[in-house]
Write a structure and sequence with these properties.
Helix content is 0%, strand content 45%. It is mainly β.
Length: 163
């Protein structure tokens, strides 16, 4: 099993917490934009596929409808990421990340803090091994895959929850 969440937060280079701008470890019940570390690209769902979209600092106050926000849920110390607008979870099938309809074992994640900021998403792999999420280069479509090696780092940027 991968490590469960904690309450560690770390300031980013954004202009301050008044915008909810923390590079934070995900906390159950909070909503985040998932961004590539050192990038403005945010993970979104379009036509039931994961894509990277440009995000801006002003999106943190009130994310536009085209920018996906993720509500953190938990089951048995595993984190899940739920998109309320699509009703889908971040999940995986074999070694590819994709949106899924149910929060079950193919949608369980943990996190590992990076020494230079950001977090690696970890998932339960085959034979109970821990896998990490790898983000391919933008020229390869930025596809997300699971790897047995060191993964890519992302940021969880806290946003105000839309009611």
């Amino acid at each position: 099993m991968v490590s469960s969440y904690s309450t560690h937060t770390r300031s980013t280079n954004f202009p301050g917490p008044q915008f909810g701008c923390l590079d934070a470890i995900p906390v159950v019940g909070k909503t985040y934009i998932i961004r590539r570390h050192n990038s403005t690209a945010a993970l979104c769902i379009r036509n039931e596929k994961l894509v990277w979209a440009k995000s801006h600092i002003w999106d943190l106050r009130s994310p536009p409808p085209n920018l996906t926000t993720w509500l953190v849920v938990e089951f048995r110390n595993w984190l899940g990421f739920f998109n309320e607008s699509t009703g889908m979870y971040l999940g995986y099938n074999d070694d590819i990340l994709l949106p899924v309809n149910k929060f079950n074992s193919n949608a369980y994640f943990g996190t590992r803090h990076g020494e230079y900021g950001g977090y690696a998403l970890q998932a339960k792999g085959r034979k109970k091994s821990t896998m990490e999420v790898l983000i391919n280069a933008p020229s390869a479509g930025g596809r997300l895959e699971l790897t047995a090696h060191r993964g890519s780092f992302i940021k969880f940027v806290s946003v105000r929850r839309q009611i």
